[in-house]
C-alpha cells in the first residue's frame, strides 16, 4: 500500500475543498449575464440621456407655447378694450380742458334754483366718477399690454432655447446610434392603430418620476406604473402574445422595471426571425407603440433591426447576434 506524504495530503485536501466550494457557491451566485438585447451598456446609457433630455425640452417647449397662446389672448383683449377707451379718454381730456375748475364753479353758481344746483352737483359727481373709472381702466389695459408684450418676447426666447436643446439631443442620439448603424430606415407605421389611454402627467406636462414599485404580471419582478400602463393598454388593444418585462440584467431598462419584450410569437420567444403572421404582428405592435409614444411615455422601440426614438424617427439597428439581439423575434419597449 502506497504511503501519501503529509505535503501531498494537504494539497489534495485543498483541491477537494476548492471543488466543494465551487459546487456550493456558483449555483447560488446571482447571474448578471450580458444583456441579450444587443448593443452595449454605453449605447443604452447614451440613448437614455438623449431621450430624456429631448423629452424634457419638448415638454418645456409645449408649455411655453401654451403660455404664449394665453398671453396673446390677454394682449388682444386688452388691446381691444384700450382701443374702445381711447375715444372716451379723449373726451375726458377735452372736457377737462374746456371746463377747468373755474368753469365748473361758474356752472354751479349760475344755477337758477336750489334744486337745479343740487342736480348739477350730482351730475358733476357722476361725471367725475365716470371719468375716473375710464382713466383707471385705460391705464390698467395699457399696463396689461406692456406686460403681455414682455411675456411674449420672453416665451419666444424660451422656445428658441428649447428647440436648440432638442436639436442637440437629437444629434446625441444619432451619434450613439452610429454604433449600431443608425442610418435612415423605412420603419413601421400603421395609421389605423388604436389610440391608447394616456398615462398620467404632472400639471406642467412632464412625466412623474417613478420607481419599480408594482408587481410585474409577466415575471417575479416589478414595474413602474407607467410601464404597467403601457403593457395593459397594448393587451387591451389586442396585443396579447407572450411577453416578459422585468428581468435581471447587467444594464438597460429591464432591471429597472421600465422595459418589456413582446414576442412576435403567441406562446414563446422563438430562436429564429419572425415570418408570416408573427412578423405582421410585430409590425403592427411596433407601429402601435410609435403612434402612442406621447400618450404612454415611450423612450424607444426596437423591432426587426430598426429602432425608433421621438427625436430621430426610425433608424437602422444593426446589432450582431441571434434573433433576440437583432430584435427579429420580439418588439422591445423602453419607457421614460
TrEMBL record:
Signal sequence bounds: 1-33
Pfam family, one: VldE
InterPro entries, alphabetized: ARB_07466-like_C
Domain of life: Bacteria
Gene3D superfamilies cross-referenced by the UniProt entry: 6.10.250.3150
Keywords, in A-Z order: Signal
Region (Disordered): 188-214
Compositionally skewed regions (Low complexity) per UniProt: 190-204
Domain ARB-07466-like C-terminal intervals: 220-327
Protein name, UniProt field: ARB-07466-like C-terminal domain-containing protein
Species this chain originates from: Actinoplanes palleronii
